[in-house]
Design goal:
The protein is of the alpha/beta class. It has 30 helices and 12 strands. The strands form 4 sheets. A 4-stranded mixed β-sheet has the order 7-6-5-8. Strands 11-10-9-12 form a 4-stranded mixed β-sheet, sandwiched between helices.
Length: about 800
């Protein structure tokens, strides 16, 4: 056995040495033919083309960029871009690729952050960080630009080896989420091409058209010039200056408020809604910390987290124009207007309170908002988050992670969210209670990015202490005649549609929308101030995608507490017996540790709520009561009845939403359906979401062991929902009856395959890109503010 192991080790080392030797020889050949690689070669060549109205500029903007967006960005964006090649911005293409994975849950030491336009600013700096070029950085000739470019070689490889003419890709293609990535440099490319003949780009999707291919090759031959972004308009600059002046006033009150606002909006895309045309995508901005004030060039403070020590005497909050292509999976549009800034003035500036000193940036203070912002009124903090509650919750799904199974396998596949009204959360009694619980409400981010998972035990103990104290506090309040009622739930002040949310989980990504969408769910959360704040600081402000396994594991485990806390708040409105029954049904087959936690650490809240029920189905009745309470602010969006299809067609589509059990479990997480109306009008989009049932969502590993497929169901919505489609269906309105009938008959994988033969646009379909263009075009036309390019890294091969 030892002999075999040694033999394999020798063989493995030999292969590495051979490959390394081949790469060295290739490098010498490239150097001989085109000179040595140097970022200055490319920099000097493109500088000559840098005029706003040059032919190269117009060619890039009108012909090249549309192809890159529609064919490359759909796979190469954010941290989950293969080989870290982020093509949403010229700087990302210039930066190039990197063999290291960002999503690496077993690393012992935190990785160095490599955030585009933050952690390095030039190609030479990125080369020092291990990124290698995909464009030619040797002598700048047409031949060298293609022969010494990984991007050109990838395009040529695809052209020479298009997809096989098969419905399903064979074992030569790996389209799994965590597939191994080859990431060849130009020196390694010949070996890659020999072993991965079908590894050209776009990978595992149809090849580009001749025109698209020639456009990109001609662009690369000509030097791959990418112009700098155009400056923002005078009107935009005026609005930017006004908001920056508000955020950078000198008083301690404003400095503290601005720090709070920044730490909650750093992952959002701000835009000035009063300057935006209704059917045009706005100019978006990132709110950043800068070393320089308004009027000077922005110098971004590149910290891991928004609350890390900026290491400057004065921080300035600035608006940095977003010039990257907007992709839906990271897009959090946040409208700035006078109505909102007037509220900020009321909550943060005009309110009667004093700030005597700014809080420390030490992790044990800054990582806990209940400690850092003690001098900021809870009413201001909670009102700020509630005003755009969808954005607040969306942050942990779209903010610092792109995809986040670490945080998402801890939530159910669909649940509703309600909020405690601000008047309750801001009461003197509750504020005093929060003050006593600051130590118990500490968060894992205080351990920063390299942490030991064993410290989770400390947080579990503190959370148990907090929940017991909270239940005692609630019991005491009830004894004072303050019984729970629907009036304790925020109704959006009669006008704000953020009062209710529906959260859909799609395995390692999720969607948050306003309103109560779909049938009544299995679970729901009621969120109060302390819970909403900790969700944000655990999963958005405090989470580091580059952190080590301990940091990521503690974050995942702590989120269990927050989910259970939100569920507990909802259950508190039910009679005690119903609470226990519901909790048992939510945590079937749960681990002994969880049972011990509930029985020994938490002790379930056991006081009567004061709610009166008229039926025996208390949960269903409570949902009805809450729904009626928030009825005025329930949005109408996503309802199938709002489609312009015929009444009969809408009734047929509605039948899709009734698929349950094993049939539902065969369907993918997210299916986007394009219906072609029989009257010749614009196509309509629907989304079919699979809701995967679980016995419980408390297990850290082996999620499949907790699956309960017989209780799976689906939700059908009108419009496009989600960022990562798994399947595309296309159907004529006249064929809806046949499509629905076949869908209802799906009982096996073979049935589903036959269904796809009739209605799917598979990743291998000849008209894939035509369908893709139309889908994205409809999405962006119908939703110019919220829309962004979809991501195709989850498309199934079925």
């Amino acid at each position: 056995m030892q002999y075999k192991q040694k033999r394999w080790i020798k063989l493995f080392i030999g292969v590495i040495l051979i490959c390394s030797g081949c790469a060295t020889i290739a490098s010498l050949d490239l150097n001989r033919l085109y000179g040595e690689e140097d970022t200055n070669n490319r920099a000097h060549a493109i500088a000559a083309l840098a005029t706003p109205e040059s032919t190269a500029t117009l060619f890039y903007e009108n012909e090249v960029a549309p192809v890159i967006n529609a064919r490359c960005v759909v796979c190469h964006a954010c941290y989950d871009a293969p080989c870290q090649l982020k093509m949403t911005h010229p700087d990302g293409i210039e930066r190039g690729a990197n063999k290291e994975k960002v999503y690496h849950g077993s690393r012992i030491i935190a990785a160095t952050p490599n955030r585009l336009m933050i952690d390095a600013q030039s190609s030479s700096e990125w080369r020092e960080r291990g990124f290698y070029p995909v464009l030619n950085e040797r002598e700048q000739t047409a031949t060298a630009n293609t022969q010494a470019s990984v991007l050109a070689k990838m395009l040529a490889l695809k052209k020479a080896n298009p997809l096989p003419d098969d419905k399903i890709l064979d074992e030569r293609f790996d389209v799994s989420i965590d597939r191994s990535q080859q990431c060849p440099t130009i020196e390694e490319f010949e070996g890659y091409a020999q072993s991965q003949a079908f590894g050209g780009m776009p990978y595992a999707l149809p090849e580009l058209s001749d025109d698209e291919h020639n456009t990109l090759i001609n662009w690369i031959q000509g030097g791959a010039y990418m112009p700098s972004p155009a400056p923002i308009s005078a009107a935009q600059q005026k609005a930017v200056d006004q908001l920056e002046q508000f955020l950078n006033a000198d008083s301690l009150k404003v400095q503290l408020s601005a720090r709070y606002i920044y730490e909650h909006l750093f992952s959002s895309h701000l835009f000035f809604s009063e300057l935006n045309e209704a059917d045009v995508q706005p100019q978006f901005y990132n709110l950043v910390r800068s070393r320089t004030p308004t009027g000077q060039p922005i110098e971004i403070i590149a910290s891991r987290r928004p609350f890390d020590d900026p290491k400057v005497s004065r921080v300035y909050y600035r608006l940095y124009p977003v010039t990257s292509t907007i992709v839906n999976k990271t897009h959090q549009p946040y409208a700035i207007n006078k109505e909102l800034t007037d509220k900020w003035q009321q909550w943060f500036v005009d309110a009667d309170y004093q700030v005597t000193e700014m809080p420390s940036y030490q992790p044990e203070v800054a990582a806990n908002p209940l400690t850092a912002f003690t001098q900021l009124p809870v009413n201001a903090r909670y009102r700020f988050m509630l005003e755009r509650a969808q954005n607040t919750i969306m942050g942990y799904i779209k903010g610092p992670v792109c995809r986040g199974q670490v945080a998402l396998n801890v939530i159910n596949d669909r649940f509703w969210v309600f909020f405690v009204k601000p008047e309750v959360a801001a009461s003197t009694e509750i504020n005093t209670f929060y003050e006593t619980q600051k130590n118990n409400l500490r968060l894992p981010a205080e351990k920063e990015s390299t942490a030991f998972a064993v410290t989770w035990i400390e947080y579990a103990s503190r959370q148990g202490d907090y929940m017991r104290a909270r239940h005692n506090f609630m019991s005491a309040e009830i004894d004072k005649e303050h019984h729970f009622s629907p009036d304790d739930i925020w109704d959006g002040d009669g006008e704000n549609q953020n009062a209710t949310l529906t959260v859909f989980r799609h395995f390692d990504n999720a969607t948050v929308i306003k309103g109560l969408v779909g049938e009544q769910p299995k679970t729901a959360w009621v969120i109060d101030y302390a819970l909403l704040e900790r969700i944000h600081y655990l999963l958005v402000a405090g989470f580091d995608v580059y952190g080590n396994y301990g940091h990521q594991l503690m974050t995942r485990l702590y989120m269990d507490f927050l989910r259970m806390e939100g569920e507990s708040n909802f259950l508190a409105f039910l009679p005690p017996d119903s609470r226990r029954k519901e909790l048992a049904s939510w945590y079937q087959k749960s681990s002994p540790e969880l049972t011990s936690f509930f029985e020994g650490k938490v002790s379930i809240f056991d006081q009567p709520s004061g709610m009166e029920f008229k039926t025996k189905n208390h949960k269903q009745e409570l949902f009805d009561i809450f729904t009626q309470h928030v009825d005025k602010v329930l949005p109408e969006r996503y309802q199938v009845k709002d489609s312009q299809l015929t009444t009969n067609s809408k009734a047929l589509l509605a039948q899709l939403g009734k698929i349950k059990g094993t049939s539902a479990s065969i369907l993918p997480e997210l299916t986007m359906i394009m219906v072609e109306p029989k009257d010749g009008k614009k196509e309509e989009i629907f989304t079919l979401v699979r809701n995967s049932a679980h016995f419980n969502v408390n297990s850290l590993f082996s999620e499949n062991a907790n699956r309960d497929p017989k209780n799976d169901n689906v939700t059908l919505v009108h419009g496009l929902l989600g960022s990562y489609p798994d399947a595309f269906w296309q159907v004529k309105e006249t064929e809806l009856a046949r499509m629905v009938a076949l869908a209802q008959q799906i009982k096996t994988e073979q049935d589903y395959a036959s269904f796809l033969d009739a209605f799917a646009v598979r990743r291998t379909s000849k008209d894939f890109w035509q369908f893709s263009d139309k889908l994205n075009q409809i999405f962006m036309q119908d939703n110019p503010i919220e829309a962004g390019w979809l991501d195709y890294n989850r498309l199934e091969n079925r």
